[in-house]
């Protein structure tokens, strides 16, 4: 996926606009998590419980229009910066008539999964800015998912005019999937127990300068993950033994890619960290913890296929 690099721009933008508040007492969360009956979804931290309580009351906070305008301006500036970077890198000297390219087999779908992940992460960053402006949870989820998808569509359309690219229906479909999954986590809170993640180590070819491209299309160094909050998913009699900070992630990477679309898919199973469990509370810390959860950090794991192998560290 050649658009990942612009995510860092959005992370910086949103982080500058988040406000911090602390829940007065942990008793409410302790009481909720101490209930004997199984509930559909439990808050993962004091900050999330505070967020859920406040957003239940539409009169709790008024929309901060100054902050909303600031967030909008920052998002616009970030989008313009991304446009300039991508225009100079790919679009300026390579314009052609708009064309559609069906590249379903490109890079064994690792690029498509990257589009799903990227759109989901952009929506998360947008949401941080909107929530800092006191936008209600449902409105924030809708606007964040919609704007993330529209931004990715802008990039896809520009690619459609690129001489070496083309508009990819597959990329667009996975962009839509990433936006819908983010929105679905609001309407179906149980989906919050599934967390998209990403990890990357440059390949030897890239480190040696032999890679014809940049780290964004250094696909063999990338792994995309789905992290599962087992504490919330397991039955009660098993859940009580599972540490709340520990997740279980399933990942996919690729190797031995060729220009003809051939190669090998690699699947992994690894432990993971739920950064939500860090005892730091407030709007800024909540955003930071949520953002860290979008990345897989080195943990023990197993390569399931093509050749099963145990690793002390999987990154």
Describe this structure in words.
By secondary structure, the protein is an alpha+beta fold. The chain has one domain (4-314). It is built from 11 helices and 6 strands. The protein has a 6-stranded antiparallel sheet with strand order 1-2-3-4-5-6. A hairpin with an 8-residue loop joins strand 3 (246-255) and strand 4. Helix 4 packs antiparallel against helix 5 (110-132), helix 4 (65-91) packs parallel to helix 6 (137-160) and helix 6 (137-160) runs antiparallel to helix 7 (169-187). The longest helix has 27 residues, at 65-91. The radius of gyration is 21 Å and the shape is globular. Mean pLDDT is 82; it is low at 1-40.
Task: Using brief descriptors, characterize the structure shown.
315 residues, alpha+beta, six-stranded antiparallel sheet, 11 helices, 15% strand, disordered N terminus
Give a quick precis of the structure.
By secondary structure, this protein is an alpha+beta fold.
Structural topology:
Layout: H1 7-15, H2 27-33, H3 46-55, H4 65-91, H5 110-132, H6 137-160, H7 169-187, E1 194-200, H8 204-207, E2 222-228, H9 230-233, H10 236-239, E3 246-255, E4 264-273, H11 283-292, E5 299-305, E6 309-314
Antiparallel strand pairs: 1-2, 2-3, 3-4, 4-5, 5-6
